Amino acid sequence: MCSYIDLHMHTKYSDDGQFEPAKLVDMCKEAGVKIMAIADHNTVNAIPEAIKQAKKNGMKYIPAIEIDCTYKDLNLHVLGYGIDYLDPVFNQIGKDIEDQEIASSLKKIELTNALGFDVAKDMLDTVSSNGVYTGEMFAEVLLKDERYLNHKLLKPYREGKDRGDNPYVNFYWDYYSQGKPCYVEIQYLSLQETIQIINEHGGIAVLAHPGNNLKGKFELFDEMVKEGIQGVECFSSYHSEEVNKYFYEKAKEYNLLYTCGSDFHGKTKPSISLGHNGCKHPEEVETLLKKYELI
Q1: Hey, is 182 helix, strand or coil?
Q2: Which residues pair with 77 in a beta bridge?
Q3: How far apart are CA 52 and CA 49, in angstroms?
Q4: How far, in Å, CA of 200 to CA of 289, rounded?
Q5: Residue 129's pLDDT is what?
Q6: Cα angle, residue 79 at apex, residues 48 and 41 outer, rounded to 5°
Q7: If 0-12 CB within 10 Å is exposed, 13-18 middle and 19+ buried, where does residue 46 land?
Q8: Nearest 5°: phi and psi at 99?
Q9: Residues 221 and 232: beta-carbon distance below 8 Å
Q10: DSSP at 41
Q11: Mean pLDDT per segment of 10 residues, for the chain of length 295 residues?
């Protein structure tokens, strides 16, 4: 089921995104999305172009960002909605993280090759524009490399196999995410610092896809509410109906903003479509967006 609200998607300004902002806005219109937000990773570069195109298309647009942060050694994504995107603080966060990621990318090559591959920097430069090599990029390069057509580690990510629905991002989650063999630590802001920055710049802090973010530790959400989180993306393409329902009820319990987002990226997550986020209550979400003066 396609929702007419989708508040979480990515453009080319995210390392793992694909499309130009205006193109993505047009794609949303074609998909039936009427209220949207692009929430790129640690950057607001897409927003001016997206706002202009959304206005041209007669769509409602909310300025947003998705910030990497940590809480109790757990890496998280927090969405900031309604932010003053012209303030340089948001892109400075992204610059600080990018500098660390460029340095860590060389270490990722070493760790990847330790798994039994032979990946060179120039191969990754064909899919990266800035020297940051994500797990999804390693997957793209390796899965297209004829030397590894029958490599046992890659078999689950082939078409029709268990992890073949979103092969690039699944490979990232299995090998490059926190606690996995090719993970390299990055120093992110704390949850508390992230909430403060979002709030100080006019925004509302919303925990992204908690079913995926919290790694099963759902009890941490109650603590995060006490720390100041103001909303939750209870409807997500990553969630089962059961998980959607759990966080929907939590949002009601704590009187929080609840949102819906597909987390569309393009080729990185081919099974995810714009507007497909499991939201059964878009009218309620729209009412809340008005209450919080986001639309």
Answers
A1: coil
A2: 68
A3: 5
A4: 19
A5: 87
A6: 60
A7: buried
A8: -60, -40
A9: yes
A10: B
A11: 93 93 98 98 97 98 98 96 97 95 96 97 94 95 96 96 94 95 97 98 98 92 97 95 96 97 92 93 97 97
